[in-house]
C-alpha cells in the first residue's frame, strides 16, 4: 500500500524520554494549515494511506479541519493519526473527531500504571488522559479502528506482562496491539544509557505479554523484531517494519532462511548494542538413516 506521512510539526504536550524527535524541540517549527493542505494536494492520487504524525497533531487548532480536508481531497484514502491520545479524554472532542471520518488512530501506551507511564512521557497526568482517551474512542469502535502501540525499552520491558493484562482488562474491542523496540535517535539517543536493553533480555517478558494478548484474542503485530530472537510460535506476529531500508541492517544474517521476510534490526541498535544476539536460522537438518528404515507394514 502506498503510504504518505505528514509530519505536521514538532510541538507536543508530552516530552517522551524515548521520542525519536529531540524533545523539547530546539526549534518551534510547525507546518501551517496551508502547507499541510498543499502537501495533501501534491500526493499521488494512488496514495492509499495518509498518516498524520508530529509532534502531536491533535493539539493543533486546525486538527479537525486538516482531517476533513484530507477526506475531501482524497476520499479513497485511509487516514490515520498517530497521537498520544490525551485529547480524546474529552468526550465532546472525540465525538467531533469521529465526524471527520478519520479511519484509524494509533496511540502509544507505555505502562500499566500512571507512575511509570508519566515518568516515560515526562508529562504528569498523561496516563489518565491517554487511558480515558482510548476508552472514549472505543465507544466508536464501529466507526474508527484503534491500535495501541507499545514502544519497548529498559524502563518498561519487565512490565510488558502487566501491561498486556491491563490492556486485556481495560480495552475490550480494541483492534490491535503493536509492539516494537526503540530506534535510538532523537531523545532515545540522548537518553540511551537509561533506555538500551538487549532484545534477548526483553524476549521472556515479551513472550509472556504475547501469550496474554493472544489468549484475549487481540491482533498482535511486532515491528522491528527479527525472527531469530523469537520462539517459532510467535513468528506469525512478525509484521515487518515501518521505515525505509537504509535504517535497517542485516549485518549478522549470512544465509539465514528467514532473511527475505525478516524486518532486520535497527541500524542504530546494531551500532550501539551490537549484533551478537542475532543468529542466522538454518534449514532443519535432513534426517540421515544409518541403515534403511524398515518399511514393511504388516
Ligand atoms: S539472522 Fe537476520 S535475517 Fe535471520 S531472523 Fe535474524 S535478523 Fe532476521
TrEMBL record:
InterPro entries: Aldolase_TIM (IPR013785), Radical_SAM_PqqE_MftC-like (IPR050377), rSAM (IPR007197), rSAM_paired_HxsC (IPR024032), rSAM_sf (IPR058240). Keywords: Iron, Iron-sulfur, Metal-binding, S-adenosyl-L-methionine. This is Radical SAM core domain-containing protein. Residues 1-219 form the Radical SAM core domain. GO terms for molecular function: catalytic activity; iron-sulfur cluster binding; metal ion binding. It holds the Pfam family Radical_SAM.
